[in-house]
Amino acid sequence: MKLFDMTKKYGQATYAYPFEPYEIVEGYRGKPSYTYEKCIGCTACANACPSNAINVKMNESKDKLVWEFNCGRCIFCGRCDEVCPTGAVVLSDQFENAVKFDKENLKERGEMDLQKCEICDRVFTTKRLIAYDLQRLRKAGWSEEYLAQKTKFMKTCPDCKREHSVEYVSNGFGVGGEK
Ligand code: SF4
Ligand code: SF4
Fold it and tell me: What ligand has the least distance to the C-alpha of 83?
């Protein structure tokens, strides 16, 4: 009876969920939502993820970069959201993440084309990442002539860049260059 009295006095303290929708508070950290079209394959999210819920691997035989997310491993810390430069992964307000039987349904996947080095022909980054960098340089006001030179530099793998560093620096597009 004491409890009934308290309920009467203070009102209902619990929610009727799942019979009624549950209202999410602002800033709630729910399931990371992935937008494949925005992803450039930079791997920042995979490097920042403390629980290995996000993995990014190169499939060299297919010239593809494979982005994978396993919600079963996610601790909803939000690091992926913080570091993603394009907003491809953002925490949503989704909290109903259970799957019925197949744990594969907890996973998401995206594949994107890899770029081959113009000198040694080995894959080393994604085509999307190069296009993204070029777009940013263009927005920053670099000339088309400079961008054409820079494209060659960007399509060269780190090993070949090291080998040809003197040539690149003397051409002015390795580490700086004119606008
Ligand atoms: S929210 Fe945290 S644990 Fe989950 S995928 Fe992002 S970085 Fe990894
Ligand atoms: S940080 Fe963003 S853009 Fe980079 S791989 Fe992850 S989801 Fe894609």
Answer: 2
